[in-house]
Amino acid sequence: MPVAAIADAGPITVRRLQRDDADAVRELDSLILGEDRSSTWDEYIDRFLAFSRLGTQALPWSGSQVAEVENGVVGFLLAERQSSGYGLPPGLRIVAVAVHPDFRKQGVGRKLVEALRVDSKRQGIKHIYSVLHNSDERDAEFLEGCGFAPAEVKVFVAEA
Ligand SMILES: CC(C)(COP(=O)(O)OP(=O)(O)OC[C@H]1O[C@@H](n2cnc3c(N)ncnc32)[C@H](O)[C@@H]1OP(=O)(O)O)[C@@H](O)C(=O)NCCC(=O)NCCS
Q1: Does the structure show a pLDDT above 70 at 53?
Q2: Is 110 in the pocket of ligand 1 (CB under 6 A)?
Q3: Domain segments of the chain as ranges
Q4: Rounded CA gap, 103 and 63, in Å?
């Protein structure tokens, strides 16, 4: 499905992301520029787009979702399995969320996260994570607005 034409948007529905949503993901990605891009943006979008070119096998379940109106896609959420690490029980990690600039602040991002929650629960997954750079303040506010709270984990780093 293409990215939506704004004029006749209708009710917004959310469903699982499919391989053939890659064009809409690429198109939405191209609308997200400059300060609108979070610092980890490119890495995850590129990974999904590369994976979607890998032939006809079905995408493994990852919790990823798209939001659409009748004539096209208005948002997507990419997620992947989080294996257990220090301080983090296994679960699912949100790696990118995007909403078409003309459809923001209408609860579309929240709907994507809600759909991920419902889908994850059905799969027996208990925790959903997202990791942000400190500078991604808007994304922190978005996650907090969707019911997330900072985890009790600190990451330390030194030069090798
Ligand atoms: C971040 C983004 C996905 C939010 O989508 P959205 O559909 O506008 O979000 P919602 O309307 O569902 O907002 C849910 C809550 O998040 C918070 N929020 C949303 N946008 C926000 C912003 N720009 N600044 C601060 N808080 C924000 C609010 O608390 C909001 O709750 P409220 O409506 O009760 O105030 C969207 O701005 C976007 O696509 N950004 C560009 C891509 C990107 O960098 N994504 C970051 C994650 S990788």
Answers
A1: yes
A2: yes
A3: 13-145
A4: 22
